[in-house]
Amino acid sequence: MIKFILLLATLFLLIATPVLAMDVNFAWDANSESDLSGYRLYQSGTSGSYTYGSGNEVAEIPAGTETCTIDVADGTWYWVLTAYDTNGNESGPSNEVSASVDQTAPAPPANLHFQ
Questions:
Q1: What are the per-10-residue average pLDDT scores of the chain (115 residues)?
Q2: CB 52 within 8 A of CB 95
Q3: pTM score, two decimals?
Q4: In the chain, what are the domains?
């Protein structure tokens, strides 16, 4: 089990933990704004390259929830989290976390024999 723990520059603590091959779990510190509506989790195959805004997230999480689990395919992936309020205003991104997912089994051993 790989664990990534990074302190966010924007008051979040975001944790990415790949488990059970394709699942990646995230957790962060809650925002305290009274008009907080929720969070958006963005994923990219390229570090620092995200398209923000409603409809571009891989997960939209309601306020009061500070965890999320998503399924990912093989590869190296990057994520950031934003917060948005009831007026639709969206924060800047959190720090970026990444994980490499490899579900491909190794080749079988060759040339088994008695000595």
A1: 32 44 89 97 98 96 97 94 97 96 88 91
A2: no
A3: 0.76
A4: 4-101 (2.60.40.10)
